[in-house]
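Morning, I've got a small favour to ask if you have a moment. I've been staring at a protein lately and its backbone has me curious. You're getting the sequence in one-letter code plus the fold written as tokens. I've dropped the whole record in just underneath, so have a look:
=====
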Amino acid sequence: MSDDATNGNASVGGGAEVTPPVNSQIIEAVQRSTNFVFGLDDSFQTSGTALSSGATIAYEKAAQAAAFAIQDAVDYQRNMLSITSAAQGKALAMILAGVNVTEAAQAIAAATALATAAIANVTAIGTSIDAMLTGFPRT
């Protein structure tokens, strides 16, 4: 083989070149990204702080889990607000009709408390996630 083998081309015997089955640029890209992931090459890093690829991946996974938690909390809040809105509408209709006014007023108060609790739930989860991600080691 000639020295061209390092460029992705190899000559065999009588000078005929054999093209490798995979483009040499692809091989180089895969090798460089593998070296970066395993911490063997930090040339891609632009910050002054050396990043551990493992820590970076762990942080991304934690951030993804946090995003799912927020989405779930917001879905819960949305569902609770829909339920409370329906309950308040029905209770208001009962009050306007003069039927079970005391119980309807209690239903409105309970629905309002439920809506407030759903909002507090999202706030508490958001605060916890913020604290978790802020304190998460990135290196």
Summary: Helices lie at 24-37, 53-97, 101-135.
